[in-house]
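ok, trying the design again with the full structure, not the truncated one.
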């Protein structure tokens, strides 16, 4: 999937919010740097949470790879970072296709036939 301007802005915001520090190992990286990534807690392909600030954590290359290979640990880090309630909200949001969500909004507003 191609990285766009919104992805780059999201990445910069997540890394700055986390103090340019890997949230798994604690190593600090002086900005600007590409050595510290913004790791998605949910697949980047899930458009509804792709650029949600709470849906990412700063992670060094090694920790990012490790988190991708250990989804239970990635979830635990996410819960620790944003809390179980918010994590669960984002997880539900990530599983709702954008078109379905828009249709639900329009249906609630009376703009779509049932």
């Amino acid at each position: 999937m191609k990285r766009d301007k919104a992805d780059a802005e999201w990445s910069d915001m997540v890394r700055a919010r986390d103090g340019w520090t890997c949230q798994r190992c604690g190593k600090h990286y002086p900005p600007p740097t590409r050595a510290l990534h913004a790791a998605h807690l949910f697949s980047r392909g899930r458009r509804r949470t792709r650029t949600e600030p709470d849906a990412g954590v700063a992670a060094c290359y090694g920790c990012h790879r490790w988190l991708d290979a250990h989804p239970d640990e990635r979830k635990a880090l996410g819960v620790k970072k944003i809390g179980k309630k918010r994590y669960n909200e984002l997880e539900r949001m990530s599983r709702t296709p954008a078109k379905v969500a828009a249709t639900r909004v329009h249906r609630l507003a009376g703009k779509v036939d049932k």
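Keeping the full-length input from now on. The chain has a mean pLDDT of 88.
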